Ribonuclease P protein component (Candidatus Falkowbacteria bacterium HGW-Falkowbacteria-1), 113 residues
Amino acid sequence: MFNKKNRVTKTKEIENIFKNGKSFYNDILGFKVLKNEIKNNRFCIIISAKVSKKAVVRNKIKRQIRAIIIGEKNILRNDFDIVIIVNKNIVGRDFSEIKNSLNSAFKKLNLYA
């Protein structure tokens, strides 16, 4: 679980990120990134019931993505709001594939320090 200071929770903030943020999509994940005034990164993971009807599967995917982000948090540049949109193609992928996809997206978005 992210700390409260590392979460984007308000609907208006998420809408602002979608409206004004920079986009990037790969085969299993989508990203919306917007620079913020706070000096730490904030994340939001969006996974629809269309990805999987089973909440267990959706929660597992969220936990895996959170674990990867927490591991990478120290080497990411600060001051960004990041919304991660999960695609249907993620179901059945193992942890290493998700990690590679996330890392390549962070590189493309220049989020590494």
